[in-house]
Amino acid sequence: MKLGSMQYAGRITTTLYSTLKQLATPEVNLCTVEDPIELIEPSYNQMQVEHKIGLDFAAGIRTLMRQDPDIIMVGEIRDLETAEMAIQASLTGHLVLSTLHTNNASPAVTRLLEIGLKPYLVKLTLLGVMAQRLIRTLCPHCKTKQTLLDEQWESLVNPFKIKKTRDYLSSKRLY
Ligand SMILES: [Zn+2]
Question: Ligand 1 centre from 7 Cα, in Å?
Answer without folding.
Answer: 25
